[in-house]
Amino acid sequence: MLRTALLAAARSPQARQLVERTPLAKPVVRRFVAGSSLREAVEVTSTLVADGRKVTLDHLGEDTTDAAQAAATVHAYEGLLDALGAADLAGSAEVSVKLSAVGQSLPKDGEKIALDNARLICEAAAAVGTTVTLDMEDHTTTDSTLGILSDLRVDFPSTGAVLQAYLRRTEQDCRDLSGAGSRVRLCKGAYKEPESVAYQDKSEVDRSYVRCLRILMDGAGYPMVASHDPRLVAIAADLAAGRRTDTYEHQMLYGVRPDAQRAIAAEGKTLRVYVPYGDQWYGYFMRRLAERPANVAFFLRSLATR
Ligand code: FDA
């Protein structure tokens, strides 16, 4: 119930105003968000890379309903990619993009604007020698996002997809996207979805994750195992037994299980940290609270002790 309430609040403008106006929220947000500026994002990336981890950077923002804001997001990514190139970090850091931040949800021509904008970001990434992964948002956007992915992959074949194991359709999507060169990040899924399209029970989602991961690991693509779940991390090691360690990777979120992140990297495997930065942290932060009730207690305790 708490998860449902938090995920509903993640989409509520009123709740957003309330939480964003609480200045004391910021220090807690910093556990999950690298900072608000490009400089902080590059600093955090540099520290993680020096520690043996790789990075994917997310310029925070979603559900943009203004074309100028979508264009500003593209500029932010272009600036970020330039900065990664200049700091010699592009070999270890890519970017993650939410299509709803670059125009997908605009009422007129949203899909075309998102494709054009995502293409600009892919060009900027290719210019410094790195790539882009398209985040996956709620199920109403899945077909559109996979359609845009397929268009982008014509010119930028290394563009990555995200698939969510909680969706009933995902096993088939894994089959469709398991071909040579296909980079697929498999996660459990972070949105509130109806039973008609998504498994509701945690154990059902976990079983689906294993079925999907098996398909990806048996395929010729590049699976990206995005989970902090120790059981799934262990299962991934079993399923990857016949693979070289440079043909798949693990991914975890900034601020979540950093010891496990270091341990995976120390085994000689690739561990990539998803690092969000920027001012529009509200939706991202609320989804992180919803994933783990203990985070809510942590948040409330921090407010009470300040
Ligand atoms: P689960 O939620 O079962 O957590 C397992 C354990 O991990 C917990 O017991 C706890 O120890 C730790 N943990 C997990 N979440 C935590 C948190 N927030 N705070 C503290 N500890 C936590 N989703 C989506 O819908 N679209 C997307 O594009 C992406 N992209 C993405 C990229 C990357 C790199 C990751 C790691 C995740 C995503 N996600 C996502 C989020 C994903 O769908 C999922 O909600 C979270 O990863 C949590 O699921 P776990 O697999 O970690 O398992």
From TrEMBL:
Its EC number is 1.5.5.2. Keywords: FAD, Flavoprotein, Nucleotide-binding, Oxidoreductase, Proline metabolism. The keyword Flavoprotein applies. FAD binds at M136, Q164, K188, G189, A190, K202, S227, H228. One of its GO terms (molecular function) is nucleotide binding. It catalyses: L-proline + a quinone = (S)-1-pyrroline-5-carboxylate + a quinol + H(+). Transmembrane segments: none annotated. Its cofactor is FAD. Pathway: Amino-acid degradation; L-proline degradation into L-glutamate; L-glutamate from L-proline: step 1/2. It holds the Pfam family Pro_dh. Residues 46-298 form the Proline dehydrogenase domain. Substrate binds at K98, R287, R288. The keyword Cell wall biogenesis/degradation does not apply. InterPro entries: FAD-linked_oxidoreductase-like, PRODH_bac_arc, Proline_DH_dom, Proline_oxidase. PANTHER family: PROLINE DEHYDROGENASE 1, MITOCHONDRIAL (PTHR13914:SF0), PROLINE OXIDASE (PTHR13914). This is proline dehydrogenase. It comes from Kutzneria buriramensis.
